[in-house]
Write a structure and sequence with these properties.
alpha/beta, 3 domains, 6-stranded antiparallel beta sheet, 4-stranded antiparallel beta sheet, 31 strands, elongated
Length: 408
Amino acid sequence: MMGHWDGAWNDSSPNNFGAMKLSPWIELKKRVGTANIIQNSYMFDIPCVENSPYSACQTGEDYRSINIWRTALLNYKQAYELDPYYGVSIQCGAVRNTQANQRNVERHEVLYNANLALMYGAKFLHLYTYFAQRAVSDSLSGWTYHGIVDWGANFYQPLVYTLKYDMLQDTLNPRLEGLFGKTLKKLVPKADTLGIDAYTNPYIDGTPPFSFIDYIEATGTMVDTCLMELGEFTDPSDPELKYFMPINRYYSTLSSIDFGLKNLTPFRNWKLTDYVDTTVTTLTAVNQKADYSATILPGDAKLYSLGPVVKYGGTLAVNDTISSGTLELVDNMTIDNGVNLVVDAEYIASYTITLSGTGVLTGTGFFSLSGNGAVITNSWNRSLFRGKNGNHPTILRGEYPESGTGKG
């Protein structure tokens, strides 16, 4: 699908040339239904450039921002509605011909374009173009004269492997093949916001659609800028886990970002998983709020999930309570030294719980093991737990790590 300024094949909205003045996205969906799409709307200097004469670019907004939201909302978002397995063609170089005059984009710009497409649900990326079709000196003859890999001064000289090549090899490709890509592939985009000004006008006390994002803020000097895109996702197989993806816009100058999360209830310990760095952090909620800091370079992104430690595992850093219902632990959990987990409901461990130091699992509720569930303790004084077998109470005994004896 050839993208355009407003997701249509003309420069006005609604699309006066379409049936019933519909955009081609909506018209195609009504006529054909689901179709496999590759979207090739390029955002760099299209349709707007600095001091552009086009009325669509004379809104008082930064021309680069206009290009981004027209590409994201009027093309990528529409493509996902038509085909949740759609792909995006990413501008990777420079071309000059009768139809286009596109500058050579840089490493962080290619990465930003890829991240933006992924935030809007793209499932594959097409590189336009990987190999330049002409040498740089032949830029006036048409075709592409920059790509991921460039020609030398002539076809007889060695190929030039650009910084974009290094980025694909060292950053984007390993990320897509790793935890980031495997996780993102199963998620469904839920909400999105473009152009959050994290420096001069921070996103504070956010309202829906981001019910759990409290603020996004960056610190710098008066000459700095930091604009963020933010996407929220759901996992159809586990709707309780919160996913969000912040992207630092490619022309931002700041990379140190502070985030705040809210509505963290009813638990105090929350597992934050970074699918880019594959790190896990425990956030401690105070009055249902928690803060954390991240470094996101211009053009780059993060993908996070957020869920209570007592369900999704990790480290229980402060006292917590399971007060109602039935809850299952679905990954390994460590209870820190001196920390108590009070079970006043029903708690099922399908993975290992490790009690560190004087950490305690206590309460008036019932605790049980399932599957590979086990409890490891370093003191026999804290190795007995109140359990339930059907409707009958029972006693569970944790394993002692030094001897390997005992059975949960």
